[in-house]
Amino acid sequence: EAAANVLLLRAGLALLAWPIYLLSFLGIWEPFCRKVFFPFFLEKICTVHDKKSKKYKQELFRNLPDFRGPSGELRLLEIGTGSGSNFQFYPPGCKVTCTDINPHFQEGLSRNMKKNQHLHYEQFLVAAGEDLRQVPSGSVDAVVCTLVLCSVHSVSSTLREVLRVLRPGGAFYFLEHVAAEHSSWTYFWQQVCYPTWKLVFAGCCLTRELWKNLEEAKFSELKIQHISVAMPWMPVEPHIVGYGVK
User: Fold this and answer.
1) Alpha-carbon span 116 to 127, nearest angstrom
2) N or C: which end of the chain has fewer CB within 10 A?
3) Out of 28-37, 120-129, 209-218, least confident range
């Protein structure tokens, strides 16, 4: 019965969003989404999300300086930098390489770079998390990924690349929204919204159980905390936060 209700509500939602489905069918939605809608919308959502998750991020990134390399420098790679909302949490002098599959965040990115002049910005690479071939193996001390694993094509390939580019003893930091408890109303609504949400928000999947991927990924040490970040009217409340050491 629950499955039938999910399908019925999914159809209702698709009906409401039919103009987007039509634009997608005509090949117009994706380029528009990538260039205009997603950067604009993501920045608005990130502003709300940053306020709600600030204390978790401050706590998460507090031990970043512990992972400085033998030279005393901290070389950090961020996957899916977007407009750079994490820069404020990185320690002074940190050398940052930004990567994103979408090159259309420049406006917000340059604004955040100006605001955070305590960092050294090394380069910006247009690259997917699954393919960081431009980054040499074992060349970074820390990799950061927030609200990105929900929309990569392959979580396991992305985590393999993370482990490849990290030096031994380096750390991978994450904060991601995940699937809710299966018996909960949140999970019910995640299932209802799934197809339309994925289309509207550039491939974002609501029901990934990312903690399982992280547990399978061969980190020598893994700290995961399940937390709740309440976002108004959005089925993305359950999150995980933590770090894994190579």
Assistant:
1) 23
2) N
3) 28-37
- The correct CATH number of 1-245 out of 3.50.30.10, 1.10.3720.10, 3.40.50.150, 3.40.309.10 is 3.40.50.150
Which positions ≥6 away from 7 have C-beta within 8 Å?
none
CA distance 108 to 5: 40
**DSSP H stretches of helix in the chain:** 2-16, 18-25, 29-32, 38-61, 106-115, 155-165, 185-200, 210-215
Inter-residue contact 33 to 26 (CB < 8 Å): no
Overall pTM > 0.85: yes
**What tokens does 103 get?**
């090159």
- Cα separation, 77 vs 144, in Å, equals 6
Q: Which residues pair with 242 in a beta bridge?
A: 174, 224
Q: In terms of C-beta density within 10 A (0-12 exposed, 13-18 middle, 19 or more buried), how is residue 216 classed?
A: exposed
Nearest-5° angle of CA 148, CA 152, CA 154? Answer: 135
With a CB cutoff of 8 Å and minimum separation 6, the contacts of 221 are: 244, 245
**CB-CB contact of 101 with 109 (8 Å):** no
Q: How many residues does the chain have?
A: 246
What region, left, alpha or beta, does residue 184 occupy, with left being phi > 0 and alpha being psi -120 to 50 degrees?
Answer: beta
CA angle 238, 186, 153 (to 5 degrees): 60
pLDDT of residue 106: 79
Q: What pLDDT is stored for residue 173 in this prediction?
A: 98
